[in-house]
Amino acid sequence: MSGVPQKKISVLIADDQPLVRRGLALILSPDPAFEVVAEAEDGEQAVALAHRFRPDVVVMDIRMPVLDGVQATEQLAAALPDCRVLALSTFDMDEYVVGALRAGAYGFLPKDISPEELVAAIHIVHAGEATVAPRLLTRLISTYVRAPHRPQKPPLSLSELTPREVEVWRLIATGLDNAEIARALDITVSTVKNYITSIFDKLSVRDRAQAVIAAYESGLVETQQN
């Protein structure tokens, strides 16, 4: 088994700044786990190259010309669901980041992350899991919910969830991880995971990031006004 070479994770880098694209490529290319298959300078090109190369992961800048990262992510999520998008942004509190998560991105990272954090995030996204710092996510959503163009329709009635599921959902939305939720409710981590599976199914959301967004949109959690 150990002699069988593992398939590399193919990565497409989309950013309108050549220096950023090259920097990301220089981080990933020497790593034997990755293969940078293409680079795009705008969202439209990213979509076209993704269709051509079918990368495992697209590292997608949010703000790009022609077609921005949010629109590009939405198109990729619809046409190439096996292609995972990891969104990047210079702006920590940017409603476009939440837009990318709603569009189907599997995670978000600020551009000032370390190379090690980028590598770890790509592995997580490739595995089909979300990678968004919980506290950063809640800050982003707080900004988004204050914006004037707020979705009108909550995803579902809270009555569709059990009281304990509502409580777990609320704790997810406040930024707690599974272990912290387990301690808060005095239950096991495996029980928390079971609740989360049921919550995601009832909410029709794919991951933690979308569940937090749904919590704000439904009114379960409200932003703090300072």
Walk me through this protein's architecture.
The protein is α/β, with parallel strands linked by helices and 226 residues long. 50% of the residues lie in helices and 12% in strands. It contains ten helices and five strands; from the N terminus they run E-H-E-H-E-H-E-H-E-H-H-H-H-H-H. It has helices at residues 18-28, 43-53, 69-79, 95-103, 115-126, 134-146, 163-173, 178-185, 189-203, 208-218, and strands at residues 9-14, 34-40, 57-61, 84-89, 107-110. A five-stranded parallel sheet has the order 2-1-3-4-5, sandwiched between helices. Helix 4 (95-103) crosses helix 6 (134-146), helix 7 (163-173) packs across helix 9 (189-203) and helix 8 (178-185) packs across helix 9 (189-203). The longest helix has 15 residues, at 189-203. The protein is globular and about 50 Å long. The termini are far apart. The model is unreliable at 147-154 (pLDDT under 50).
